[in-house]
Amino acid sequence: SAAGGCSGAAEEQALSKLVVRLQNVQERKRLETLVQTLSDLLELAARQSAPRLFSGKNVHVPLLLVVDLYPGAAGVQQMGWSLLCKLIEICPSTLHHIAPKDVGKDWEALGVHQQILKMLTVHKGNVNLSVVGLKALNLLLMSDVIAFLLLEEEVDVFSLVFNAMHTFPKNEEIQQHGCKALHKLFEKVPEEQLTEFVESKDHMIILKVFKEFSEKEEVILPALYSLHSLAGPCNNVEVLMSGNVRCYNIIVEMMKTFPNSETVQEVSCCLLHKLTLGNFFNILVLHKVPEVIVKAAKTYPENAKLQAAALSCLALLTETIFLNQDLEERKEEEEEEKLCWLEACYRALELHRRNTDVLEAACWALKNLFLYQRNLHEKIGDGDNQFPIDRAVMLSMLMHSSSKEVFQAAASTLAILSQQNVNIRKTLLAKGIHMNVLDIMRKHPHSPEVAESACRILNHVFKGSFPHLDIMTVAVSEVVKAMRKHEKSLSLQLEALRVLLHFMMPGNSHLFLKNNFKNKQLSCCHCKQNKLDLILCSVQKCGLKLLASVAECTGALEILTQQGATDTVLHTLQMYPDEQDIQCLGLSLLHSLITRKSLCIATMHVLSTVLVSALRRFKEVTEIQMHGFHTILSILDLSPCFAKLLVHESFDTVIFHQMSMCFTDQRDRQFQSLCCKCFAKIAENDDIKNMMLEKACIEYNSIMAECLLLLGADINKKTKTNSLIYQVCEKGNNPKLVELLLANGAREQDVRSALAISIKRGDSQIISLLLKRLSLDVANSSICLGGFGIGRLEPSWLIPLFPDKLTPLRKQNAGSALARMVLKFQMKNISEDRSRASSDLNFSEDGVDKNYDWNFISDPLVDSVFPFSDDIDSEGSEGSLFTKKKSNSIAVADLYCREMTFQRGSPTFPRHSYSVGPGSDYEPLMKQRRKFLPSDESPSISKFSPHIRPSDSLSSLVSEKEYIKSLDLSSNELENIDAISQNSCLTSHLEHLEKLELHQNALTNIPEQLCENLKCLTYLDLHSNRFTSFPTYLLKMNCIANLDISRNDIGPSFALDPYLRCPTLKQLNLSYNQLVCTPEFLTNVAENLEQLLLEGNKISCLCSPICLKELKILNISKNNISSLAENVFMGCTKLEQFNARMNALEIIPDLSSSITSLKLSQNHFINVPEAVLLLPHLRSVDLSQNKIISLPGPMHWKSLNLRELLFNYNQIDILDLSEKACAWSRLEKLHLSHNKLKEARLLKKVKLQW
């Protein structure tokens, strides 16, 4: 001991000397000495006596100063931080002393948190210093103050740690200390920052640790802890579970690698629990996660944290485990594997009775296990190979009655066991669990979750038993209290009502309900609970049947209405939209409960929604449809405005379907009539009628569309978007509906917009119908498609435009039959209203019947579809369409007249409304008749016979004007019309055409076959296209007289076949092409040509004579002609008009003596050509804008019929009228403006000078 004392004294002395050296260190002192001092101190700190030696010496103070003085000295930094780490380990109080006392103060020297960050920054490339720095950082992070200061610094401590781990990925110590530091730092930052780390993929550095050091537990463990911290936010869980990361595979692998490490198993289970909370059940089950969790739970049953995490995972994964096993081929031994965590749960309940987390997790795991393995309850009990789990769960519930979570889990488990096993149910009931549950409910009066769990277990415990009246009273009292307390918890209401349902079962339910119904207060409570929702389907059916029975009692309806039965039924219907029985019962009840007093705007809104929803869902269930339509009809009788609410909920779709089905399916007679009555009521409003027409068009229901149109719906009524016909054409594929809309007066601008969209869609049949409406002019035998810009032309579009010789009448259709039926009910309603009003005014019924008697028009289609029973129609013969006698018959008469009009395709009548509203007079019907009929007398039935053929029908027009004579396809951007020539169906129509206009398109040729088919064509206009050559076969057409192929790109020349003859051609227009000469052999081919137009070409000279003896007009203006050949007009003996404006002519050698009009302006004439002066029949001369210097006087002109002389813009200086001025006696115009006139010689010896 003396030696030990001497040794201790020596150590004390040595330490004192070393501390003095450290305190007196100078900046310029040799580093080797300083490093040696630090090394000696480190050696002392490593001794067994170090805690005693260094206690109270405050060595850390000079040490931190030295470290601060030498930030760049690697040796000093390494020894210094190593010594500080050792000091913290041997004297934990050192950590408290080095932490800054005043966090908000600016220190003179750097704080320890700043020094460690500086060292890691300066020496980030030094592996040894990185190891020491991360180790020191881990020790410093044990202080909450230092940790807070580190996170507040501008230098990012996370970046330093991640950088070190990334720089030295294979260094075990760096990875170990780095993961430890990250775990501690992650625990102190908010979730938002954790999400940022994962988004920037920093977590990948941690994942690499598992790959590099898969066998090193001391490295793997801190990495797992770091991942556990990162897996907090939901977004991070998604990334960790993604295909690129698959964190679950890493965890499973680590659990398999370190099966004997309890810590690894614990943190792995906790981490898997976090991943499970992300709802990635299927992925985890497929990758064998449950297997490793079960193994861990079995291996370490006393580890509470592991048990809580493992059993929570299994509770969440149970459903997926069993579903996947059901999909696989299961063997008998696999059946046993399902029981693998039953024993683990039981051991957890026994070993951790005081740990609520473990108890809660075990109960939930058991509950789901029993739920998905139905026969497992057989393993529960006190027998051999059984587990008394029911006792353990009940004990847990009673021991921790103050824990809501444990009670919920335990109650759910016991509820499942009670449901599956009668013996367990009896055992629990015998032990008085129901009283314990009611006591726990009282302890947690403000928790709906506790109340719901309590009701759930009571529901199953009471099943099949009839408790004592006292128990029933207590239970009902507590359950009703909970229901009142937590009115908004629907799941609680469900479980509570299930409990109460046990007390209303046969034997005492009738008495129970009767007593409650008699007691006003309890009745209100009962209705209130129904409002909150009798969610259970069987309870709803029972309740509705009860209400239906009560409603049949005298005076019960009023009481039910007062207690809110209508709202109860409505709410029930809303909550069970797909339950057929409930909907049927509910709609039947509504029909009885609805009264005028109970109707308000809010109720009608709900009614419309509920009714239409039920009718749409069960459109094929006649019983529901009957109840629904009866209810709607009764409400419409009470409030006509209900119709708008119905249409807003798309009731029109429902009634369209049902009325259309009358023609495709034999429905009940009464139901058919009921549909018509409802439709008649709704169609009394014009606005609703128009809305229904729009809906019918949207739904492509041509039957209802025609019916509504016949009833007076306005096709041109403004809609929210586009016109009706546009909407129909936009959807396409319904030519019948398009034809119907066209026949009923669709506006032309709407038809044009519909045509554009139909062309885009390519609906040939619809396009034909639209084009027929827009272009066909039967009266003038023409089709005008000019300016439509249709882009292409299909034969299928054109064929229907050519009328057939016979247009048969269409058969009677469903739409008109429906319209007749609806109108019948409307008129019948008016008759009843008028009769009622007349009786109120003391009029006799005989008078009413006399004024409103009915005539009937037989309609076979109506008879076959709507065979009336006596209760529906008691007037007249069965199955007849009626019309009023005298003046009142006009409504049906007009309907029939409109129908005949639509069938024959004749022009439509002006638009009128044919609906008759409730309480309206018949005067509007009289006004309608005056618009349709020439006299006020009632039209006889024979006038509307279906055998009548109107004089203006299409068939009569076709017989008068058999064929289309004119076809205009101009301005349509057509690039070719080959399809027309190749269609045989068009040939018979085209061969009768006399006029064809194809100008202003993009044609490059015209098919020769088409020209052969145009046997009667006299006029062909091809101007403003893209022809580059002249189609000579155009001149082979038999009757062609007028050919306009101007404004193309024909040129520079073309020659005709000299053997071709076209004697019918009278006018040829080749203006504005690229010709440099006149067509060769033209005189041979078109010997009877009267007009030749060559304006706007590039002709420079007329070198050969033009021998066209019938030519009357020649236009060669706007060319580059500078000369004319001798005798160029030798053969043009009938030429009357010659136009050579805007050329380069200086002289004209010869002109035809028959010329009367001559236009030579904008040329290069200096003098008036002699050939012009010698023309005997000349009437008009235009030589303006030349360079003529003198105007020959009257004596020089041979013609005595001059009317116009246009010489403006020349160089004329003298006007000589001195001789034979009378030769110009007929002159009407003499233009000499913009010349250089200085003198006018009027008579001899008289001069006028300027």
UniProtKB/TrEMBL annotation:
GO terms for cellular component: cytoplasm. Transmembrane segments: none annotated. This is Leucine rich repeat kinase 2. InterPro entries: ANK_LRRK2, Ankyrin_rpt-contain_sf, ARM-like, ARM-type_fold, ARM_LRRK2, Leu-rich_rpt, Leu-rich_rpt_typical-subtyp, LRR_dom_sf. Keywords: Coiled coil, Leucine-rich repeat, Repeat. PROSITE patterns: LRR. It comes from Accipiter nisus. Residues 317-344 form a coiled coil. PANTHER family: PTHR48051, RAS SUPPRESSOR PROTEIN 1. Residues 17-629 form the LRRK2 ARM repeat domain. Residues 659-788 form the LRRK2 ANK repeat domain.
